[in-house]
Amino acid sequence: MADPVECTFTSEWDGGVLVTTPATVDPDTGKLVSIEVSDDEVEGLDHLDREYLTLPDGSDHAVAAGEDGRYGVTDLDAFQAALQGAPRP
Questions:
Q1: Which CATH number fits domain 5-83: 2.40.10, 3.30.1460, 1.10.357, 3.40.50?
Q2: Contact (Cβ atoms closer than 8 angstroms) between residue 57 and residue 19
Q3: Which of 33, 40, 77, 85 has the fewest CB atoms within 10 Å distance of its CB?
């Protein structure tokens, strides 16, 4: 297993409120290994628009909870290509 990759995890709420925290992701599976709890005030947010992680190269990758409840990237091939430095489409 390769070492986890540091990234940021972002959830976007109510049409633009961003809550971003440090996270780590398994490069082999695309599953998030850890997500830190945000210190931001998040009460009153109603509608989750999307969630994604951002790699050190600046590329964003959509994430979703799997059947096991763990978050992972939705496009593992694109995620792994970004880790290898491949050009993004």
A1: 2.40.10
A2: no
A3: 85
The residues, any chain, with a CB within 8 Å of residue 16's CB and separated by 6 or more, are none
Q: How far is residue 15 CA from its own chain's centroid?
A: 18
> What secondary structure does DSSP assign to 21-34, as a single string?
EEEEE-TTT-BEEE
Cα dihedral sign, 75-78-80-82: negative
Q: Any idea where the domains of the chain sit in the sequence?
A: 5-83
The model's pTM is 0.86
**Is the pLDDT reported for residue 42 higher than 80?**
no
Structure-block tokens of residue 47: 């509608």
Task: Return the structure tokens found at 28.
Answer: 């082999």
